[in-house]
Amino acid sequence: MEKEFLSVRELSEILNLKADFLYLLVEEGRIPHFRIGRLIRFSPNAIHEWMEGNRREVHYRDKQVREAPKTSNGTKLYIDSILKKNIAQGKSMGYSKPRETRQEIKGLRKDGDDDGAL
């Protein structure tokens, strides 16, 4: 049996939307709802019609092979290959800098110094 009215929480679960977003849609008057005092309720039929009204048809155009843009000196610029190369370089470099040994770090006291003087 289908419920006659849905709460904000129930509708958010059905539509997989955050409740805060539904409250925003209600405040802006962009979604059909009923307000009973402070309670907000939704009619499943009205929500279904609203969803159908918001449907966007996707039209895929025939993919055309585009020629790579040219630079000022006339050579072709292949942005995809440049991006892939830079990403690969970044991954190979890693994210942390190499560790320094104790001798390389300036200002550390040497072994045998008990007073900590430099």
Primary descriptors:
2 strands, 36% helix, 5% strand, 118 residues
In terms of topology, how is this protein built?
Elements: H1 8-15, H2 19-28, E1 34-36, E2 39-41, H3 44-53, H4 79-93
Antiparallel strand pairs: 1-2
Q: How are the strands ordered across the major sheet?
A: 1-2
Unreliable segments (pLDDT under 50, ≥5 consecutive)?
none
Distance between the termini: 82 Å
Percentage of residues in helical conformation: 25-40%
Shape: elongated
Q: Give the mean pLDDT.
A: 77
Task: Report the structural category.
Answer: mainly alpha
Radius of gyration: 31 Å
Number of strands: 2
Treating each run of at least 4 consecutive H or I residues as one helix, how many helices? 4
Strand content: 5-15%
The secondary-structure element order is: HHEEHH
Structure described in brief:
It is elongated and about 65 Å long.
Describe the structure.
- It is a single chain.
- By secondary structure, the protein is mainly alpha-helical.
- The protein has a domain at 8-53.
- The protein has helices at residues 8-15, 19-28, 44-53, 79-93; strands at residues 34-36, 39-41.
- It has a two-stranded antiparallel ribbon.
